[in-house]
Amino acid sequence: MDDQSGTTEGRLGRRQESEEAASSSGGDVPVPRIPLIRPLVNRRAAVYQIISNFISSYTPSNSSSDDVRPSVCFAPQMYGSGKTILGKHFREFVLLNRQVLEKDIIEFPGIAGSGESAGKRAVEVLLNETIYVNLDLRSFPYFGGEDFRSTLIETISEEALSTLPNKPKLLAKVLKNREDPKEWLSSLFQVTDKRYLFLFIDEIGLLPSRKFYQFPDLDPQRNPRKPNVYRLFFEILSSFLVLPYVICFIAGRSDAVIARQEDAISSSVNLDIVRLDPFSEETTKLFIQGMKTSTGEIVLQLLFPDHPEGHDWFFKQVRDYTGGVPRYIVHVMQVLVNRSIHNKLYNMTESEMYANIERTPPYMGDFATPSNMKPNTLRVFCALLLAAALKYEFRESETICEELVASENSQYVLDIANKFGFYYEYCSKEGLEQVQLSEQRIKLIFPKMFLKVVKEHYRYYPLIRYIYYLFPLRAPVESLSSLGFRLKVIFASAFYVRCSLSRQLEELSLFHQSFVEDVVFNTDQCSVRTVASLSSELKTKYSADEQSYSPNAWKDLYDKYLSEDGIFLPNKDNSCGPDIFVRVSVPIDDDSSGADEGCSSLTEMLMYTSSKKRRVYLIGITLKYYHSSSVDVDMIKEEVDKFLVPVSSQLELEKNDIWAVQLVVSTSYNNEVSSHFTDKQNWIMNTGVYYEERFKKKHPSPSAWQDRISSNSDKEGLHIGPNCQLVVCSVDNLKDFLGQQVYEQLQNLSSDTESVLNKLDPLAKLLGQLLTSDVPIEPDSSHIFSITADRDEMEVEVVSKERVRGVIPFDWKTFLHQRALLPEEVSTRYAPSFSRIFGDNPRVILRSSLELMRIPEEYIQHILIAVGSLDSDTETKG
Question: Does the N-terminal peptide bond of residue 35 adopt cis geometry, omega within 30 degrees of 0?
Answer without folding.
Answer: no
